[in-house]
Amino acid sequence: MQTAEKSKMVQYSISAIDRRLKNFSIRGDHPLQRESEQWNSVMRNNFIADILHQNPIPAIIIAEQIVDNAVIQWLIDGKQRCTNSVNFKNGLFKVGRNVEKPIISYQTVRMEDDEAVYEEKEFDIRGKGYHDLPAELQERFDDYTVSVVQYLNCTDDDIEYHIRRYNTSKPMTAAQKGITHLGQEYAGVVKKLKEHTFFKNCGNYRISEFRNGTMDRLITESIMAINFLPKWKKRNEDICAYLKENARVSDFDSFEEELDRLSEVITDEVSEMFHSKESFLWFAVFDRFTKSGRDDTEFVRFLTAFQKELRGKRINGRTYAETDVGGTKDKSVVTEKIELLEALMNEYLHIVKEKTIEKFEITDRALAEFLEAFRQSEFISALPFGAKADTDRMALQYLMFAVRKTDADDVLIQDYIRGHDFDKDVLEDTMLYLDILNAWSLETDNNSRIFCRENIPVLLGIVRYAVEQEEDEPAARWFVKYAGNYNASRDSGRQNAEKYKKMLASLKRFIAYEAKKSA
């Protein structure tokens, strides 16, 4: 539906607003909007007094959005005015003693000898709720009319823009402004994650932090630190804008799984370490810990030791305390903290970290051209930054896989490519397998966690097997089902050879089942 009008003005009474919020004619739960209860008691009490004094209040702003032919009216500014008036009407609070103008004048009328007798009265609203008001003031409250500006036929971008520019009653915090850059889909995911049992029961978070945007900021910082640390941004609104363009739902799903795991093992002794300032660091380190395949209780053992003895331990010439420069979140500081914590953890738990190389030295021209074509392929280009960052590593790990040098670390890969050239047919076949994998992926959910960077070399190996066995058609059908049910946590800590063996067994069972069913 289209309309030439950009906006229009209407009038709603308090009773009408109450009714429309209850039957969802007006939606006050847009993911980008702040939580309720942003006002303190003074602001809330004076607002109720203004209504009863019949003083004008600023207009409420509604954005109309059409989704699948359904008209949704989002309350994007005035949420505190609406919720506080409705909560007062429904008896959820009484006016406090700190209200500025507590005496309300009103008029009563009664009939005496068939004549109307008018009387001026006053009522003190301090300590009074809606049901304590005289009938005349209840009626005045119910009939109070609010101006409503409706923006028509809005897009998601329109709504984001209006939410940012309309916040006159109480300015948004930096965290609340930040999430308006995240986009409606991801903002909704963050709101859901905020209710996770870990945040409610296991950490050291204040109740106010769930309302003022702090928990939203914590979650977006955690997603950024886990998946996109090389692109870390200091300002939360920049983090949110980056995640909107580069993150996947699967990144948030992965974080939720890790919260589930931590909830099972966290102890009272270490739960206080998970507060709003540093939690994102611990979540990033735990994500790295999960790659070791160790039992999660080992991570808690490290946290306990960190509290007691490791905080002041010097490693790589620095202690953790020396990295804490006034709580700054500059990229260099955040990166150093996470790297130092990981080094402390690996040393304490005797985790041997795989040797990595930041940039491979490529001298063979054919290999260099292959890697460039690999990077520019349709499949790789569609991956988010967190996966694309390791493009060369993915390609080289698969090539080693193809020449039966399975699970080679970066150092072994570098040594191999210095002394060997890959056969031209192997390089060309790899690009063919990449195209086939791209075709398979078009039939799956793009957010499936099977597309994480660690899995790409293994998936190419599966494609190679399917092509060599001339089973690529049933393999494509298998992949759709496998990707839809993929559980990354079950592959945590597995090497490529293990993952390949597991996927190949599943594929063979599927092919055998289809053959039996066909026969």
Structure description:
The protein has helices at 14-22, 41-52, 79-89, 135-143, 156-165, 174-179, 184-193, 197-202, 214-227, 236-246, 249-265, 268-271, 279-290, 296-310, 320-323, 331-349, 365-376, 378-381, 385-388, 391-402, 410-419, 424-441, 456-468, 472-484, 496-518, and strands at 7-13, 60-67, 70-77, 103-112, 115-124, 145-151. The protein is 54% helix and 10% strand. It is elongated. The chain has a four-stranded mixed β-sheet. A two-stranded antiparallel ribbon has the order 4-5.
Q: Can you list the strand order of the major beta sheet?
A: 1-6-2-3
Q: Please give the largest β-sheet.
A: 4 strands, mixed
Provide the helix percentage.
40-55%
Average pLDDT = 85
Spatial separation of the terminal alpha carbons: 52 Å
The overall strand count is 6
> Looking at the chains present, what oligomeric state does this protein adopt?
single chain
Report strand %. 5-15%
DSSP summary: helix tally? 25
Work out the radius of gyration.
Answer: 30 Å
What coarse outline follows from CA principal-axis ratios?
elongated
The assigned structural class equals alpha+beta
Contiguous uncertain segments of 5+ residues: none
Summarize the structure.
With 519 residues, the chain is of the alpha+beta class.
Q: How are the elements arranged and paired?
A:
Elements: E1 7-13, H1 14-22, H2 41-52, E2 60-67, E3 70-77, H3 79-89, E4 103-112, E5 115-124, H4 135-143, E6 145-151, H5 156-165, H6 174-179, H7 184-193, H8 197-202, H9 214-227, H10 236-246, H11 249-265, H12 268-271, H13 279-290, H14 296-310, H15 320-323, H16 331-349, H17 365-376, H18 378-381, H19 385-388, H20 391-402, H21 410-419, H22 424-441, H23 456-468, H24 472-484, H25 496-518
Parallel strand pairs: 2-6
Antiparallel strand pairs: 1-6, 2-3, 4-5
